[in-house]
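Feature request, filed as a ticket because there's no other form

It would be nice if the structure record came with a short human-readable summary line next to the tokens. Right now we just get the raw output. Example of a typical job, pasted below so the devs can see what we mean:
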Amino acid sequence: MTAPTSSPTVALIHGAFADSSGWNGVVELLQADGIAVQAISNPLRGIAFDSAYAASALRQIAGPVLAVGHSYGGAVITNAAPEAANVVGLVYVAAFAPDEGETLGDIESGSTDSVLNSALQPVQFPVGKGDDTAVELLIAPEKFHDAFAADVPVKDAAVMAATQRPVAEAAFGETNGTPGWRTLPSWAVVPAGDKAAGADVLLNMAQRAGATITEAEGSHVIMVSQPETVAQVIRQALAQCSEVPM
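Raw output as currently delivered:
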């Protein structure tokens, strides 16, 4: 007897310099289709911490889950998926898909498309040990539109810059673990105009992961500027994942 299938819940994980509101347009489209969606807040404290947090959140979603990550969130779902047995597929949206032992800093250094490093500014944050601090990173507001959201109206990018969430510098130096894409089907949306992660490294990682790739004109925040493009890839992934019994 064939085990019953269940349509996965879509779990959306945002990346650095952002929060879950970046998924709003995609969420609205999926909910209009009757698709279950849950956005998970990413702590942005580092690969190990954030992946453990995400894995816990994913495990607590009833039934199968399609994990969707944007940017740094792609690294998080890559590491979290092996620790959450209910994850049935991965979708990378302008997202990192690192391999075991790699760091995001090393990956970024290989991009000729990314201008992110020149746009970052360091700030200090307390680490809870007396006066000890550590470094976290922000995108300089005057460089945010060009580096991060070039196809978003300037006034909207200004709001995004003002409300951005910093990421711990450690997130780019920690090594990644066993990638979920080795055993799970994956899909990728690669924006040709991505100057944050870098369209070149995004495409290389998606190809290496064996992902079904959709290339589109757009910036790093293509889920904001073109939510239908992203939603359609998620629908395609859901259709295929729903055919596989749990």
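Something like this underneath would help us a lot:
The beta strands are 9-13, 37-40, 65-70, 87-93, 120-126, 133-139, 167-168, 186-191, 212-216.
Residues 1-5 have pLDDT under 50 and may be disordered.
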